[in-house]
Amino acid sequence: MLYPVGFRPEDFAKPMIGVASAWSMVTPCNMHLDQLAREAEVGANAAGGKAIVFDTITISDGISMGTEGMKYSLVSREVIADSIETVVGCEGMDGFVAVGGCDKNMPGSLIAMARLNRPAVFIYGGTILPGCITGDNRPLDIVSVFEAVGAHAKQRINDQEFQAIESCAIPGAGACGGMYTANTMASAIEALGMSLPNSSAQNAISEAKKEDCRRAGATVVEMIKRGLRPLDIMTKQAFENAITVVIALGGSTNGVLHLLAIAHACRVKLALDDFTRVGRRVPVLADLKPSGKHLMSELVAIGGIRPLMRMLFEVGLLHGDCLTVTGQTLRETLTKVKPYPQGQTIIAPLAKPLKRESHLVILYGNLAPEGAVAKISGKEGLRFRGQARVFNSEEQAMERILAGAIRKGDVIVIRYEGPKGGPGMREMLAPTSAIMGEGMGQDVALITDGRFSGGSHGFVVGHITPEAYAGGPIALVKDGDSITIDAETRQINLELTARELKQRRQAWKAPRPRYTRGVLAKYASTVASASQGAVTDLDLEL
Where on the phi/psi map is residue 287: left (φ > 0), alpha (ψ -120 to 50), or beta? Predict the structure, then answer.
């Protein structure tokens, strides 16, 4: 059966290298990955392996955002991990390369690598270039469109201006251009040691990215020779390196969810409190969108994340002894890295950080006894107290936001959007962007048992656990309740007495599941809490 797909007699003595491609025309993030997969195939074959290209799925967060379809987004991470594990395991491949270009196919690939523990390298498809409107120097990206929705609702821009932004924001192939989830996870994976140096900071359409793919194919063959496997690389210290880099870059809250899930697959004990422990000593240095000014393509132009990693290593914030897929330690891969050019404004010096501690703030309190994840850049303040405006779905909240019904001082509560309750833990980019587009980013807060896009910014708290569907305190909130969010004390509290909370809990009734068959029902029946990474393969031994 292998002769007709291109094998020759001599190929059967070579290591078989899978190339898992997340190519599809569903989204620009992945539309070029078939070409990159072929480059990886060339690299593996030239190094003495025999490569076989196969596909996994991709969905589009950006297209499904704000719709019922978004409930499939986080589910797809598990489908991707399962499908790669299934093909590599079934076909007896000796090692593999995974090529991914957006939010879920990256952690999905890493989860599969951990489960299989066969030599493997991840390739990031690269970042998109900025869009632009003729005669306007503003760089545009996907979040520009979502924020334009709010601006249009407030009549701050007209129909023609809105259409111009919508049609020009995304010029071609590549992942969303800010330090959103795709670029966050690509950077985290490089810091973990599971992609080649500088793989995370390359433009999608570039010769550098093609060369990265060829080298990755060859690297897997070398890993087989060395006996180097993913679980040799993805240690607890490597995860601490990944957390450090995500914080320094001002990365997405989804980095918390996905790193927890990857660590679970590696059987590495990683918890929400590790993000607090690491975050107390790591500053935010990158002035990147969504809360900053610059795009990833601008960071690529000044050297990517390697000079930043060297800065962090030199002051003891990275573990230099961690192995990478190259066979070298992190310290060895940073030896010849040159500093950023003088005068650049994208990465702040360590002496003058944008924020002295992490922007990813883990909160606890009577509203989130098992934890919640806030994204606090500092620009929106460190404390918010307001009155609850409660919605039992994203659609309900979005309708009232666009109708202008939200007032200064409101705490928007969007619940029953957690992993089980949604199901699928939708991202709240549409409501957060509408709020920013309406100019209310510093006037209201938004909390949810769902999650946020890497493009979300403002005073936002997600991943509230236990989720509403499981009877968490967020299910007990009523309109007008006072809520306090304090990033300095790391608390999120509903200002009610324990007696009142107990009475409300006794009166609460669990809602009926929204789906009773199909993939969403199956996901809801198996998924763990967001505080555990929303994994679906909890150890049966536990």
Answer: beta
Residue 95 to residue 314: CA distance in whole angstroms: 34
- When computed from its CA atoms, the radius of gyration of the chain, rounded to whole angstroms, is 23
Summarize the confidence of residues 496-505 as an average pLDDT.
Answer: 96
* Of 83, 433, 453, 529, catalytic: 453
- Res. 541: pLDDT tops 70: no
CA distance 243 to 274: 9
For residue 540, the model assigns a pLDDT of 59
Walk across the sheet containing 410-414 and list its strands. 360-363, 371-375, 459-465, 445-448, 410-414, 383-391, 482-486, 491-494
**Residue 410: beta bridge partners?**
387
DSSP states of 95-159: EEEEEE-STTHHHHHHHHHHHH-SSEEEEE--BPPPEEETTEEEEE-HHHHHHHHHHHHTTSS-H
Domains observed in the chain: 7-129+173-334 (3.40.50.2300), 131-168 (no CATH), 362-532 (3.50.30.80)
Distance CA 73, CA 60 (A): 8
Active site residue 453: yes
pLDDT band at residue 542, thresholds of 50, 70 and 90?
A: very low
- Rounded to an integer, the average pLDDT of 302-309 is 98
Q: 407-466, pLDDT tens digit by residue?
A: 999 999 999 999 999 999 999 989 998 998 888 888 999 999 999 988 788 899 999 999
